[in-house]
Amino acid sequence: MSGKALDASAEVTGAAGLSQTLRSRHVSMISIGGIIGAGLFVGSSAAIASVGPAVTISYLLAGLLVLVVMRALSEMAAAQPGLGSFTEYIRVGLGPAAGFISGWLYWYTWVVVVAIEAIAGATLLSHWVSLQMWELVLVVMLLLTAVNLCSTRTYGEFEFWFSSIKVAAIIAFTVIAGLFAFGLTSGSGPTFRNLVIHHGFAPLGKAAILAGVTTVVFSLTGAEIATVAAAESRESKNVIARMTTMIITRIVLFYVLSVFLVVSVVPWTVIQSGSSPFATALAYTHVPHADTIMNVIVLTAVLSCLNSGLYVASRVLFTLAAKGDAPQAAVVINSRRVPARAILISSSFGFFAVILAVLSPDGLFAFLVNASGVLVLIIYGLICCAHLRLRWRMRPAEQAALEVKVWLFPWLSIATIAAIIAVLGAMAISPRLASQLYSSLLTVAAVSVACVVTLVRRRRQARVSGPVAHGGYI
User: Fold this and answer.
1) Residue in 8, 264, 20, 249 with CA at minimum distance from that of residue 153
2) Where is 86: in which H helix or E strand?
3) H, E, C per residue of 234-245
4) I want to staple 135 with a disulfide (CB 3.0 to 4.6 A). Which of 99, 131, 196, 262 is the partner?
């Protein structure tokens, strides 16, 4: 991992002038917030309903897969901190075309998430606020766009408190459900029998456990946001070096343990897909107003995800523009050293997607959602490939000097790539998930065509005007 990447880092975060006002507590909580969202509090119900109590193993396997990817990213980020966006490590490892494709795919994923979360937030707010749905969506989008436009520090503070609430909620749930499951508050003894009394621990078979990985892996994505935020922190190298240890704790505590307690407290046959299994479990533990409490927590998770979505989409777009892969308007920053135009462009696409959700919820908007379904998993595969190539290019002395290393290199990295391919293959033969895979591959194809067109145009310009360095292109 050479000095060229460090020069690129200076271009994006130094000369371009993004602020570096995030502290380590902000970056740490942003990383946590990237994982804990509605996918855990609500989306886990679908996984439980389709796998049974053994879904905890599905979460553990998916968590291990994501853990290795994050370890690879941590290794690259610790060696070359501050590239501006984690997709730039793919550019450094696999070349400009891979950087172009992964950057735009990741941007697209998050602007679609922004629209989804805005609609979800408005739906939750409608329980307490008597406004039309479109009015609530407008309020939510304008509020969090304003937060991102204010300053990076403002975004960091909002996300810090959003994530703190989610962490506190998970800890409180773990304590309440744990006491109930061990029989200290249940009144009828331990409830762990719920793990096996309804046709066993794996009632739908071992194959369902592996199939469940394809469902739950997407709820575990998002920790990579920390590498984007770390570019705007003076402590980025130290923060990223500690990220892997933190992620182990998050996977075990926030997902595996909490879902395990859910299926210990509540018979898995009671949980309905689309409802919050956490609210159901709290109701079983006799916590008053469990539904209202969970609605507040899920609303916080949704707003946090929307807030982070706008942030990360704007920074990825800013980095693409700095490399010449996006309109140069997106590289302009305001007096607060915030990429205001990149934020507004990303927010505008979010507004456009929301309009499509209102006009064509089962048509164009459904296609947008499906077309972003597996893109992060594809990008994770590219991260592992980039890491393999970068490590193989290093001299033994450079490898020995690395502060963070992927375990069992290269076999664990290769096994992770194989696991990602296996998950995609399982989606291809799943009637429920195949549409997401093929729609997402269509998006990959469209971005790849755009990349080829951009490269051809740039090379023609270079032949006419002479070689011009443009973020690694010549």
Assistant:
1) 20
2) none
3) CCHHHHHHHHHH
4) 131
